[in-house]
Write a structure and sequence with these properties.
This protein is mainly α. It contains 11 helices and 2 strands.
């Protein structure tokens, strides 16, 4: 098989779209026919000269539209009966219209772990009551397995914590980052992960419970640790788990 080519970053184009384009070209050419296994994501990343998260995002977009099938523990396979040209446009649209979930998570981790200390310091009793109320609703929804409602309430919870800082700049920045999580790539990567095993949401419920209890107790140290665990776990879920083939 011919190795993937090194990336030359094109202005105004996402890395994910360029990586997906290379994979699609190899599928169209017959180098990777229907039913064949793609190289490991690690190897693709090394050959193209990009990070594994960028490759994971490209693969995820290909999976979303049905070009790639994931076989847990065995890798990514080209699907059968494809109309590549039509699906290629969908892949490009998903990747070009979405910011990198990995970069968003990194930014949120820096900003939200940095601001939660201020939130605990400045929060009024009614702010903590509101955070608690949202969390209790989110917990019930999570146990019920309603993923869409769960993620919607997740955004509401994180924004409520930001609002407790009483700082309009922090609130505006967090609100902007949370709105990005409504983009198609982010939504589908999270949805596909949880649909494979609904019990996976239990881990996130436990971490969010730690965050809220720390806020209730006004324990900044524990709140920061729990929030860091929250972001690290989401990154692990989206970019590390189910990659045994690598």
């Amino acid at each position: 098989m011919t190795p993937f080519g090194k990336m030359r970053q094109a202005q105004y184009r996402s890395k994910g779209a360029i990586i997906a384009e290379q994979i699609l070209e190899k599928i169209k050419s017959g180098e990777y026919p229907s039913g064949s296994r793609l190289p490991a994501e690690r190897l693709i990343a090394e050959q193209i000269g990009v990070s594994r998260p960028s490759v994971r995002e490209a693969i995820s977009a290909l999976h979303i539209v049905g070009i790639i099938e994931r076989h847990p523990g065995d890798g990514n396979y080209v699907s059968s009966d494809l109309v590549i040209d039509d699906l290629s446009l969908q892949v490009t649209r998903i990747l070009e219209e979405s910011d990198s979930p990995y970069e968003i998570l990194q930014a949120r981790k820096v900003i939200e772990t940095g601001s939660i200390r201020l939130a605990i310091k400045e929060a009024r009793d009614q702010d903590i009551d509101r955070i608690t109320s949202i969390w209790e609703e989110k917990y019930i929804i999570g146990l019920a397995g309603d993923y869409r409602a769960y993620t919607r309430l997740g955004k509401k919870l994180h924004l409520a914590i930001a609002e407790a800082t009483q700082n309009s700049i922090i609130i505006s920045v967090v609100d902007r980052l949370l709105n990005i999580t409504g983009q198609p790539l982010w939504q589908n990567m999270r949805r596909l992960y949880y649909e494979k095993d609904h019990r996976r949401i239990d881990q996130m419920l436990e971490i969010h419970d730690r965050i809220v209890r720390a806020i209730q107790q006004r324990n900044s140290h524990e709140a920061i640790l729990a929030l860091e665990a929250d972001f690290d776990t989401v990154i692990e879920q989206l970019y590390t788990m189910n990659s045994k083939e690598d």
